[in-house]
Here is the input.
Amino acid sequence: MSDLSIYPAELAEMSVNQLSNLAPERLQEASFHLDELIVWGKKARAKMDAALDLRFGRQARSALHESGRDFGVTHLNAGAVHIRYDLPKKVTWSQPILKEIAQRIVTSGDKVEDFIDFKLSVSESRYTNWPSALQEQFARARTVEEGKPSITLTIEGGAA
Here is the structure.
């Protein structure tokens, strides 16, 4: 990244309008280097998070267990540094088993919605391959909005 001609501080000070008026080659260069910076930042953050967990994780988990919890927030001190350690609970549910339970709930006459949250969806590729009569039945439930555009700049003939 030493050949960067637009430096991060300069980018941060520029307005969106100023950036959009840069020469296409400078836009491509800045975009390329920002992507590199993001990759580097993610790797560095992952390494730092692993180091922090290695350094403080055992002590923090022990503090959680001593307070009768497996998950949650605990606080530690290391000299003058205060550490807030947050170990969230991550729950996943087996979809086939939930489907089976939902069928039993319906069979018993209860409302599935009283027990299970669910979100119905239709894959777009499936929808577009349906016959028009079937598409018409679903059309009222379908909303199409713009997603975030992805714009990639490359230099003709090769290198980024």
Strands lie at 72-78, 81-87. DSSP finds six helices and two strands in the chain. The mean pLDDT is 89. The chain has two domains: 8-87, 95-141.
